[in-house]
Amino acid sequence: MFRSSQRRTWFRRLSDVVWPRHGFRRAWNYRMCRLSRLRVCPHRISLGFAAGAFAFFTPFIGFHFLLAAALALVMRGNLLASAAGTVVGNPLTFPFIWLATFQIGSAIVGPPAGHVAGMDPIGLSLAEANDWQGYWELLGDAIWPMSVGAIPLGLAGAAISYAFCFWSLGKVRRTPASRSAAAEARRR
Prior knowledge:
Helix content: 55-70%
Shape: globular
Largest sheet: none
Structural class: mainly alpha
Order of helices and strands: HHHHHHHH
Number of helices: 8
Number of strands: 0
């Protein structure tokens, strides 16, 4: 009944994820409004959202939802909020996050074998990886430092997203009566 008469194409839906048509603020407010209507305490919703934000920083593309759901179950967070938390990242931010996690992970565990400073980040070029074994070596040399580097970045992102989500839910969930009572108290 309230749907548009024109169906959105897959390209339009994908572009709305990367760059929302009506702006990031409206998309964020819409998601917070949807999360605020869940019959769960804000702490659990925020924990689930933080679990999703942490999972976004890991290099395991395709498993972010599963990892976020597992973390939310362990922390007793909301599963729907964990799925929404993985949307913190998008294809525009992936390369920056991957580079940051690789650099931090390399600083923690040391550079991969064959890494030369000033050369390509993992020491192998795509020209050297001319067969599947070469591609797996290329991938394997990058995954370990990225996985280790994702932990501190993921914890920082989860803490920030928890605080921001908890604060946003507090603002959205206030009833009009409590807003007017708070405004009256400020006026006095």
